[in-house]
Amino acid sequence: MTATIRDLRPNDPDDAESVVRVRRSALPFMICTASGVAFELASAHPDKRYRILVAETGDGRVAGTAQVGIAYTSPEPGQGFVNAYVDPDLRGLGAGRALLRAAEEHLAAEGGTDSYAWVLDEPAHRAFAERAGYRASRSAHFLRRDLAGAGLPALPRDLPAGVELRPGSAFTADPRPLFEADAAASLDEPGDVVTEFDDYEDWLRHTWNHPYLDRGLTTVVLVDGEVAAFTAAHTDGVTRYSSAMTGTLRAFRGRGLARLAKSDSLLRARAAGYTEAFTGNDTGNAPMLAVNTWFGYEICATETRFTKRLPRGENPR
């Protein structure tokens, strides 16, 4: 039985739910909901050339899905990405190969020069990527913490002079200071593809208005009234909480402000009834890994970033 590839049907809630099912079964460490999947398409910048591909079996079952597009915020043009997921119960039908082939053809047609893909650091997954011509680069951990259990560190009784904690919702009327802090902190994020963004309206569209962003559980640290650090909270609205981005601006590093932001957000997430906390950590980012370990997070999986130079002037095969 072979798999056929098509685009996600954006106005079909059942199709989005099928994508959610596949992503959760293949990679259960990330938040994923049907509304979030629909939002990915609706909010995507035109320069992203974003598509959500679906691999369908002959009997109509959704066996796999892939996210593919161009990293339009990179100063280096042509940096493409593809992240493919196959339902573990439906492997061996050619869904992964078909998705990757369709994704690479799309990237090549849109001027992509390189393809980057996150791959679970397991022998079968690595072998699949290597057979497709990809080579391994950096890696990152998924980490999990049980929020329902004891042992979550308490906030300090007294904050340092000039330091305040505010929820992200306090910036609803004017989120620009958070945009500026996010843009500055993202410059220092470890990664293969450099990210530089300065489009405030685009940031509002795909970050500030993301359905996963819980502004009330997002914590912002102010020092003398200036945004110094933050942790952005994503939730599924039920039981799962995720630290989507934690950053400290360069001038304020070394003061424990990221730890303070995460502590406040985690404590409030537990009080709100969330029972599982997830986060991601580049394996080379030792300071952030130490912070997460201090909070009781444990590594639950590792991904490796694979990259491939795309052929020029023809569709990849």
Describe this protein's structure.
The protein has 317 residues and is an alpha+beta fold. The chain has two domains: 4-140 and 303-309, Gcn5-related N-acetyltransferase (GNAT) (Aminopeptidase, 3-Layer(aba) Sandwich); 152-295, Gcn5-related N-acetyltransferase (GNAT) (Aminopeptidase), CATH 3.40.630.30. Helices cover 29% and strands 30% of the residues. It is built from eight helices and twelve strands. Strands 1-2-3-4-5-12-6-11-10-9-8-7 form a twelve-stranded mixed β-sheet, sandwiched between helices. Helix 1 (13-26) crosses helix 2. The protein is globular. It starts with a strand and ends in an 8-residue tail after the last strand.
Short structural description:
The chain has 317 residues and is α+β, with helices and mostly antiparallel strands. The protein has two domains: 4-140 and 303-309, Gcn5-related N-acetyltransferase (GNAT) (Aminopeptidase, 3-Layer(aba) Sandwich), CATH 3.40.630.30; 152-295, Gcn5-related N-acetyltransferase (GNAT) (Aminopeptidase), CATH 3.40.630.30.
Q: Topology, pairings included?
A:
Layout: E1 4-7, H1 13-26, H2 34-43, E2 51-56, E3 62-70, E4 79-86, H3 95-109, E5 114-120, H4 123-131, E6 135-146, E7 163-167, H5 176-186, H6 200-208, E8 219-223, E9 226-235, E10 240-248, H7 257-271, E11 276-282, H8 286-294, E12 298-309
Parallel strand pairs: 4-5, 10-11
Antiparallel strand pairs: 1-2, 2-3, 3-4, 5-12, 6-11, 6-12, 7-8, 8-9, 9-10
Helix pairs in contact: 1-2
